[in-house]
Design goal:
mainly alpha, 10 helices
Length: 267
């Protein structure tokens, strides 16, 4: 597999569509925030924040109602946000294959036509994640298993776009079959774009190290203040760098996976 060709095609596509993807992600980020705010305001009683004593007077039925409402709100939020993100991914695939555009109208039409298939996939993945999280011993390795599952289902939306006759469940099964023998290549592509974020984490780690040294040193000394200032500056720089990398290179991995999918599809 020639990774240079994949990275080159990805860069060429993103050079033309980066701003489109950025504005769409920004718009959907705002919509996600609004959805989350509305759901939180529905679940949480305002009296909890104004009077902490009110919490001790909550009835058992109110607690059960709260957890049911919280679970339902979380599920609804996950499905809504997941549907929007999936539709944007499908729009990126469409733009790559047809030299089309990435805009709100295209995403809306994709949601309108394919929302049932998308929701089916989200529900399947949600159930699998839920089972893994609740399974004893297995849940201890969830930080490894859950990302690995993504590589089994990574082609789901690509297949869904190419084969309109397949439903969400069938597209997921086809992805599991098609990803066989390709997961390590896909992982390398992902690492290529997300490795940059580790630079930010490294800078943040150094910042925390400087803060620890500042705490160990006597407070009020010049050296302690200096280490504290350097530590806080490094943490701020690391966070800023991570945000920049996420904004700049976040969509690249999705496009690169689409390019890879096209290459193995034609092989």
């Amino acid at each position: 597999m020639n990774y240079d060709d994949i990275f080159s095609e990805t860069s060429a596509f993103m050079k033309e569509h980066w701003w489109d993807v950025f504005f769409m992600r920004l718009l959907f980020g705002v919509l996600t925030f609004i959805i989350a705010t509305v759901l939180v305001s529905y679940v949480f009683d305002p009296r909890w924040f104004s009077n902490l004593k009110y919490i001790s007077d909550i009835d058992k039925e109110d607690i059960e109602t709260f957890f049911i409402s919280a679970a339902a709100s979380s599920a609804i939020s996950s499905i809504l946000v997941g549907t929007i993100n999936a539709a944007l991914t499908l729009n990126i695939i469409e733009a790559y294959q047809t030299k089309g555009t990435i805009n709100f109208k295209s995403v809306y039409h994709i949601i309108k036509k394919m929302y049932l298939k998308i929701v089916t996939v989200l529900v399947i993945l949600g159930i699998v994640q839920f089972i893994i999280t609740l399974t004893p011993y297995v849940n201890r390795l969830s930080f490894i298993i859950l990302p690995l599952i993504n590589y089994f289902t990574i082609f789901t939306y690509f297949i869904m776009y190419d084969h309109k006759e397949l439903n969400g469940f069938q597209s997921t099964l086809e992805s599991v079959k098609m990803s066989k023998g390709h997961k390590f290549h896909l992982f390398k592509i992902t690492v290529h774009y997300y490795l940059r974020k580790f630079v930010g984490y490294l800078i943040m780690a150094l910042g925390f190290l400087f803060i620890i040294i500042a705490v160990i040193l006597n407070e009020g000394t010049i050296m302690s203040s200096l280490f504290m200032m350097i530590g806080l500056a490094k943490i701020g720089l690391g966070i800023s760098l991570n945000i920049f990398m996420a904004i700049k290179f976040g969509p690249y991995a999705t496009v690169a996976h689409a390019v890879y999918y096209e290459k193995i599809k034609r092989a």
